[in-house]
Amino acid sequence: MSAPYVKLPAWADYGLLPLINVVVALLISGLVVLFIGQNPLEAVQYMVEGALGSGEGIAFTLYYATNFIFTGLAVAVAFHGGLFNIGGEGQVYLGGLGVAAAALTLDHYTPWYVTMLFAVAASFAFGAAWALIPGWLQARRGSHIVITTIMFNFIAAALMVYLLVNVIKQPGTMSPQTRLFAEGGQLPKLGALMSLVGLDIGAAPFNVAFLIALVASFLVWVLIWRTRFGYELRTMGTSATAAVYAGIRYERMVVVTMLLSGGLAGMMALNPVMGDLQKLQVGFPAGAGFVGIATALMGRSHPAGIVVASILFGILYQGGAELAFWMPDITREMIILIQGLVILFAGALEHMFRPALTRLLGAGGQSSKSPSMTQSA
Amino acid sequence: MDLFGDLVQVLASTVRLSIPLVFAALAGLYAERSGVFDIGLEGKMLFGAFAAASAAAWTGSAWLGLLAAVLTSVLLSLLHGYASITQRGNQIISGVAINFIASGLTIQLGNAWFGQGGRTPQLPNSARFTEIVWPFAREIAQVPIIGPVYAGLISGHNVLVYIAFLAVPFTWWVLFRTRFGLRLRAVGENPGAVDTAGLSVSWLRYRALICCGILGGFAGAYLSVAQSASFIREMSAGKGYIALAALVFAKWKPFNVLMACLLFGFLDAFSIRLQGKSLPVIGEMPVQLIQALPYILTVILLAGFIGKAIPPKAGGVPYVKER
Amino acid sequence: MAEPAIELVGISKSFGPVRANHDIHLKVSRGTIHGIVGENGAGKSTLMSILYGFYQADSGEIRVGGKPVVIHSPNDAIAQGIGMVHQHFMLVENFTVLENVMLGAEGGALLKRGTAAARAELKRIEREYGLEVDADAVIEELPVGLQQRVEILKALYRGADILILDEPTGVLTPSEADHLFRILGKLKEEGKTVILITHKLREIMAITDSVSVMRRGEMVATLKTSETSMPQLAELMVGRSVLLRVDKASASPGKVLLSVRGLTVKDSRGVTMVDNVSFDVRAGEIVGVAGVAGNGQSELLEAIGGIRKAIAGEIVLNGETLDEATRRDPAALRRKGLAHVPEDRHHMGLVLPFEENENAILGYQNDPKYLSGPLLDLDAIRADAREKIRKYDIRPDNCRLRTANFSGGNQQKIVLSREMEQDPDVLIVGQPTRGVDVGAIEFIHRRLVAMRDAGKAVLLVSVELDEIRSLSDRILVMFAGRIVGERGAGATEQELGLLMAGVEQREAAE
């Protein structure tokens, strides 16, 4: 575990290696495009143009990125503690319930920024609550958190459909969704911000949630690298025995970590529910909970890296939609393939390029002293 | 008598809905018994379904479809093996990646090849696994009790259904009656014992993953060329995860797997049957609760409140020679 | 004389900079029991792993029955008729005895025929060597002694002529060990060759025909057992290395700061590792705990440090009898004035990927002096780390460097400076100089004496006898989980060596 940490300089570890992984993932995707008889360069061009070529494109890109920042942070916080929270999707879903609860209660009475505060708190609380049980089961009963969080994704989906169909559906309509939130329950678009730099937001739902995501990123950075909790979290995630030695309480830490992770995932709901749809409807997380796994892995669990990775995925999602429009043989699902490849190379195969890179850099005169290992027989 | 007829119908659809779970859960059983976690079952099933439907559409043969599904699924298994055995990567992450790759690539390729937005063309019955009617099924269908059971439950399934039911004892036999099975179970519990016995841990695990791939292909082929007549995007719809749950629920034992899959299939059939109806005594039962029941039951089992599900000891951990 | 069963010629093996085996020569005659003794870390296990194909030697040659052979894997070893009983059993716990024995030698693709044959063969081996065990029993339900017997059966079933046993009695009760020796005697009668690796001299004397002594990776002597004695072996094992001199005044112990009463600790398998141990450590003294590794010292240290659960006994720290909650809470123990330098700095004392300054607060992350409000006070932490780097001459003097990039000696100084500078009342230290260069050893030793002179109570656990002897004011010797003797600072190596080897005083006097 510790060995791969040692050799590479930070810029290679956090910059070059993720870049190589993404480039390889993109190259393979390019081969697929080639394979189906299309021109990958043309595809890239449409994609970049669609995502970055207009104010509206950029705004859409950032709208998607907002989702991925939240879920990426959620996965990263758990990663730092050595936990794999694969249940972001369900936690987002439940977070949406919190957002809707706050918005439906307050939208006629309070301005958006007051409603927003309650919505932030409620989305966090609902997402956290949904992560609590898997966390508690891991801490106290040793139930594998990967399996339990997967199960909770499905349970969440069933629960939300039930609630939307039978409990909170707007009376007199057929579709399983709440009523539209009034203005006091809507997050304002960031058109003004866009026009500051001379860009037109167009119809994009780019909204205040993006700023909340940036604040959350900063806070997570503070939490992980500047607080006692973060210190204990990283210790637990890096060396379980050292954590015991340092008097860090495993059970408590696991539960709190999962609450934070689930809460961050839950907050993602602010963006689509309050910032775009202005209502709660079935299926709104749309897989964003899983994209967080990719952005966390690619961003090496660092909030700054996650923001960058999320914007890249925002480009892929927005650009992918444009691409599918202009080149009908290429579908939006191309993005899911790229996402899978990024997870594969940045995650499961993270050690594949490392030895070669280490050798390459080592030959370049980097005198990294290897730790003297004690040989205990 | 109507109630009995209903029951037979529900049980028959239980069987139909359980089959992909049985194949997939058995696939997972081979992998996990050898010490490799595989949450990529969903992806294998999905890609298998796509490959089967595509090949069947081109060749007009359901059997070639099945072959294509098996090959594709084995390839994904080998990818998983390369990441988790050779590269000693994280098995969970590798599985997640495979699920996404399958999800994206099937639609992409399907759209490029058939231009129907990810669907494959509707297969004629000649290119499908169709129902096999057993001798005298029609004749004795009217006989009370035995008739409906024979005609509705035992007869009238496609060949893959019967293969699935045979795969269970076959897997048990492989696991507990063959040299390969002994070694496979050993490597999932204590790879050190296998290594010191002069056997290759990696090769054993690769072979287990190949078995996993083969069965994953059967699960996929069942979905697209037996149960339906084409591939539809995301048609595995989480069945790979339910199979995973069934595997945990079955405590990694073949016959338990069959029971767990039948239970989960029954819940599925029951909830479909129940849609919009109200039960005596209980009143209207939320369908979603029944749909979520497999997952809830699995969590409760994992929590150790009703018996303990103990996974193979070496599961999820790449083998590194000691010291 | 016939060809030796096994001959090693000039075997060398290094792990990075560590020389585990250096130019080893060894001949083992057929039909004998040959012992290999040496302290922990002397290189015995590495040598046997080379013989069994787990590692390849960097140089040298292995000859079996006079013929040079290449052993690249356990498979090759098995083919040469070499079997091994590992210290940690290589058994599949939820398999039956028969399944374990058959694994890798099933006799066909289907188990059925092989099983019948294996059962018959097992019966034959059982009869021949007196190795009764229920073939259908599940391993995890068998006592440790029987599990070991299964390991022996595995080797014999594969037709092993040469059987290597690595510390076979470590996990056995005395009567189980006696039974094992009877079995080994029987194997010898049947013409098998046995290599017994141990650090227990009594076992060597009781059962072997010849014995080789290893020290620091070298084979220092091979003797006929009948022509040697325990004192001679003890001396060879420990060696006559130059005693590291530490200048220190005689101790002036004050009041008792740490008192351990009847402490009993079991490991995860339920084996008693610390057995009803009692002792005191006073202010201003260093109490050394000597013993061959694996005799319960590590568990004792971890139990006092709050990391391991003790099932019985009490600990009195600074006059206060600790309640159960405190005893299991390393953070609370630190607050009460106990500092702990753990034996394993790589996995416990340090988080290697962390920056140096982050490790300089490990365990003290709740100390208000490192906090400002809810945040870590990085300025204070780094200033503190720099101060310790200066005071303990830690190199390189960069508190932002990853800890893994420091050398072993400097890593150990990071741990020591952290624990010592907290000004504890009681310091418990495990293997303070393991893997540390000579210069740092001297520095660390002086620091420990300085702690003593400052009126602290120091408990020192080390497998380095020199270290124990040069630092301690009193020496406790642990063997098989118990304290088998207490000696003053002037105890001789031989005297301690015999105690450490579990030789009763009476026997030693003989």
Q: Can you walk me through this structure?
A:
The complex is a heterotrimer of chains A (377), B (323) and C (510). Chain A has 377 residues and is mainly α. Chain A is built from 17 helices and no strands. In chain A, helix 3 crosses helix 15, helix 4 (55-80) crosses helix 15 and helix 5 packs antiparallel against helix 6. The model of chain A is unreliable at 1-6 and 363-377 (pLDDT under 50). Chain B is mostly helical and 323 residues long. Chain B has helices at residues 2-33, 41-59, 62-86, 91-114, 137-140, 146-154, 159-177, 179-189, 191-196, 201-227, 239-249, 254-274, 287-302. In chain B, helix 2 (41-59) packs across helix 10 (201-227). Chain B is globular. Helix content of chain C is 34%, strand content 25%. At the A-B interface, helix 6, helix 7, helix 14 and helix 16 of A face helix 3, helix 4, helix 11 and helix 13 of B.
Total beta-strand segments of chain A? 0
Radius of gyration of chain B: 20 Å
Work out the strand percent of chain A.
Answer: under 5%
Oligomer: heterotrimer
CATH domain class of chain B: Mainly Alpha
**Model regions low in confidence, pLDDT < 50 over at least 5 residues of chain A:** 1-6, 363-377
Average pLDDT of chain A: 89
CA-CA gap between termini of chain B: 69 Å
What percent strand of chain B? Answer: under 5%
Element order of chain B: H for helix, E for strand: HHHHHHHHHHHHH
Low-confidence regions of chain B: none
- Average residue pLDDT of chain B: 89
Instruction: Please give the count of helices of chain B.
Output: 13
Overall structural class of chain B, as computed from helix and strand content, comes to mainly alpha
For the sheet with most strands of chain A, the description reads: none
- In sequence order, what are the helices and strands of chain A, one letter per element? HHHHHHHHHHHHHHHHH
The helix-and-strand class of chain A reads mainly alpha
The amount of helix of chain A comes to: over 70%
